[in-house]
Every structure is written in C-alpha cells, then in structure tokens.
Specification:
The protein is largely without helices or strands. Helices cover about 0% and strands about 0% of the residues. It has a two-stranded parallel ribbon with strand order 1-2.
Length: about 475
C-alpha cells in the first residue's frame, strides 16, 4: 500500500529460484501529473528480463476511476513491461486478453506508450481484444511505441483499436509497430485505423510500421478517414524500411490530405533515412509511382517535405510522373527534395520536364541533395526541370543530385543522354552558379553522365570529370 507516486517495492529472497509474484488490491485514485504510470520497467536496472510470464488482469488492480474524462481518472500503462525481453519465452505463453479488463473509457495521453517495447519473445501473439475497454477520441501518444521492437508470431487484428473513434491526435500511432518482427503474414489490416476521421495531426503516423515485418500490400483505405490540411511529420517514416511489403502504392492512399505543405509531411514515408551501399529499403514494392499520390498538396514548399520519400524503394518502376509535384509553387525550403528518389534504380526513362518547375527563388540548404542519387535507371533529364532559381548559392543545394556512380553496387547502370539540368529560363545550373563550391554542388553529376551532350562544358566543381579506363 502506498500513497506516494514514486514508491519502489523491493524484496530479497532467501535463495535463487523461480517465483510467482502476485499483485493485489485496488487503486482508488491516480496522480494528475503523469506520475500514475504503472511500470515494470528497467529504469533502475531491475531484472525485468527475468519476467517470463504474466497472468490475470492488471486492470483489476488499476481500474478506471470515474468516467475517464480527466487525467486523474485513468491509469497510464506507459512502459508497463518495458524491455521485458523474455516475456513470453515460455512456448505456451499468450498475452492475456483480459490484461486491461476493467479499464474503460477514452484513452489518455501516452496511455500505452512503450507498454511492450522490446518484449521480443511474445510468440503467442497480440489479442484482438487487448484494448477492448478503451473507446473514445484519440489522445496524444496513446499508442506510441506500444509494440516497438517486439516479436509476435500471429497477424495483427484489424479490431485491435476498434474502440478508438474521432479526430487524429499528435503522436497517436507513432512507432506503434516499429521493428515488430517475425511472421506478420496477415499484413496490415485495412480497417486498423477505420475509426480515425478528421484533420491530420503532427506525427500521427510517424514510423508506425517502420522496419516491421508486415507483408502484403498497403491497404488503399488505410487512411481513408484522414481529410484536411497537412501536419508536420504526419506520415514521416510510416512504411520506412518495410522490406516485406509488396504490391503497388495505392494512388488514393493520401487522397483526403489537401492543403499547403507542412514540414517533413512525407519524409521517409516509403524510404530510408540515408543511402547506404548495398542496403536497400522497400525492395518488394512494385509498380509505378501514382501520378495523383500527392495531388492534394498545393502551396509553398516546407522544410524536408519530401526528404527521402522513396529512398531505396528499388522495386518501383516506370517513369516518374510529370505532375507528381505540380501543386508545389514558391520559394525553396531546406531539404525539401533531399534524397527523394535516391536508390530507386528501378525507375526509368527521362526525368520529366518541369518536375520542379513551380519552385523559383533563392536556393536553400540541401534543397536537392541526393534527389536522384543512385537512381541509375534514369536515361535523361527533361528540359526546364527546375523553376527560375537565382540568388546566392546554398550549402549542398545540388550536391550528389544526379550522382549514380558508387552508391549501390548492385544497381544497374544506365548512361544518361541529352542535356544536363536546366531551369524554365533555359539556363544550365552551372551557368547560374559558375563559381559554386564543391560544398554547394560537388558531385552533382558523375562519370555515368559523361554521355550528356554538354558534358564538356560542365565545370569540375559540379562533378564534370572523367575516369580513365583501368583507374
């Protein structure tokens, strides 16, 4: 029994062995300052790895008090079994479906944040009614990292969050299944977020499935209820590094998102954060990039808005749609197209004319850094690729933009023909910034572009050099 928020319980056993620890009683109130979280975490180097099994209902001890409308009337299970790495190692173990029985009402902020983080022995699966008593509008961070880096040997049920209905909240499903391993043969259920309806919130699906073992295709209706103006990092890393996903990207996946770009809104959505030699991202995703994927996005560029969106998705094919970014009009922003198509060596044909024609003005840091790096299947650069850009050069503004020489050794190598990149005014990039430094434009082009018609005019600081045979 305790009335303080930070009470720690300790007991020394007379001899080493296996023991069952039973918790009893009923909590009659919870702190209102966030200290009410129920935890068996590794914060003080306790031997949480020794927990191999749980039974019964922790919700019977920490039930909902009142109607669930206030912070103090709901328990938080943040980091409940945080890093209990052997939880479920018993082959007969199943996570109790009644674990939170008695807990009902609307979720609260961070309610199940990292509750089962790194519980990487839960081969018995995640019960579809685990959160059955939780119903109401989304709360910030409610399922942030809940099953991140865990292991589950059974498909995730589409009814897992069935009671959550309402407008998106910040961080609500951030990293929920990130790096969830083992057999997710059921794929991502199309109704998993069916109750979420309303305007996007910041980081709402950030890294939700990143590097997880979900397979199958992305359901077309997964985010069907999301409608409204973009929010910061709303789909940042959502499917990043999901090497088992397959099929095409649905053209209407983000159909309801309409408005002015937000910072990192689609950063790393299907791609990796960096290009690493011989490391690829969503290699099994196939088909062409839908022309209307971002058709609702219209307005001034935002920082990192399409940074690494498709990086490493080498299974994508066809030509880059000419109107993919047609709604983006205005002055450059830092990192806006950094690495967007990096490592997409399955893409082919010419980079469409005017792909970035709406972007005009003074350069920004890393605005086109590695945009097409190692997209070595591209055959040429369309005229008027960039808008009327002018003004002082910025750091890494065109570094490695078209570089395809050494980033991924397994990629096919196609040699570009035609002319190098120009703006809508007809000027070559190197004509606008003849004195740009290697920090600003170094390796913009590489030896694989030496078949370009104006190769002999490309200054060395832009990467316009040749490699002799045998060197």
């Amino acid at each position: 029994r305790a009335t303080t928020a930070d009470t720690a319980y300790e007991h020394t056993y007379a001899s080493a062995g296996e023991y069952k620890i039973k918790l009893g009683g009923v909590a009659t109130g919870y702190a209102t300052d966030g200290a009410s979280a129920i935890r068996f975490e590794n914060a003080q180097r306790k031997k949480t790895a020794d927990i191999v099994d749980i039974a019964g209902s922790i919700g019977a001890i920490f039930p909902t008090i009142g109607d669930g409308s206030a912070r103090g009337s709901q328990p938080s299970f943040e980091r409940l079994f945080y890093q209990c790495t052997n939880l479920g190692s018993d082959e007969n173990f199943q996570l109790p479906s009644q674990l939170f029985a008695g807990v009902h009402g609307a979720p609260i902020e961070n309610m199940f944040k990292e509750s089962f983080y790194k519980c990487n022995s839960m081969y018995g699966g995640i019960p579809e009614d685990l959160f059955a008593g939780i119903s109401g509008a989304p709360a910030p961070g409610m399922f942030w990292g809940t099953f991140a880096e865990a292991i589950s040997d059974f498909p995730i049920s589409g009814n897992l969050f069935a009671g959550i209905r309402g407008a998106p909240a910040p961080d609500m499903f951030r990293e929920t299944f990130a790096s969830l391993m083992f057999d997710q043969s059921g794929g991502i259920p199309d109704n998993l977020f069916a109750g979420i309806r309303g305007v996007p919130a910041a980081r709402m699906f950030m890294n939700t499935f990143a590097s997880s073992d979900f397979n199958g295709s992305i359901p077309e209706s997964l985010f069907a209820g999301i409608s409204g103006a973009p929010a910061e990092s709303m789909f940042d890393g959502t499917f990043s590094g999901c090497r088992k996903l397959s099929g095409s990207i649905p053209g209407t996946l983000f159909a309801g998102v309409r408005g002015v770009p937000a910072k990192r809104m689609f950063a790393e959505t299907f791609g990796l954060s960096v290009l690493v030699p011989n490391v690829t991202g969503n290699v099994n995703m196939t088909g062409e990039i839908p022309e209307d994927l971002f058709s609702g996005i219209r307005g001034t560029p935002a920082e990192g808005m399409f940074a690494n969106t498709f990086t490493g998705a080498s299974g994508l094919s066809g030509q880059i749609p000419s109107g993919l970014f047609s709604g983006i009009v205005g002055a450059p922003a830092p990192y806006m197209f950094s690495g967007t198509f990096g490592g997409c060596y399955g893409l082919g044909g010419e980079i469409p004319s005017g792909l970035f024609a709406g972007i005009s003005g003074v350069p920004a840091e890393r605005m086109f850094y590695q945009t097409f790096a190692s997209a070595s299947g591209l055959t040429g650069i369309g005229d008027g690729l960039f808008g009327d850009l002018s003004g002082p050069a910025a750091s890494n503004m065109f570094s490695y933009t078209f570089e395809t020489s050494q980033m991924i050794s397994s990629a096919p190598q196609t040699f570009m023909t035609g002319l190098s990149a120009r703006t809508t005014t007809g000027k070559f990039l190197y004509e606008i910034w003849p004195d740009a430094t290697t920090d600003q434009v170094g390796s913009c082009y590489s030896y694989s572009q030496q078949n370009l018609d104006d190769w002999g005019n490309i200054p060395a600081n832009w990467g316009g050099f040749t490699i002799e045979s045998g060197q």
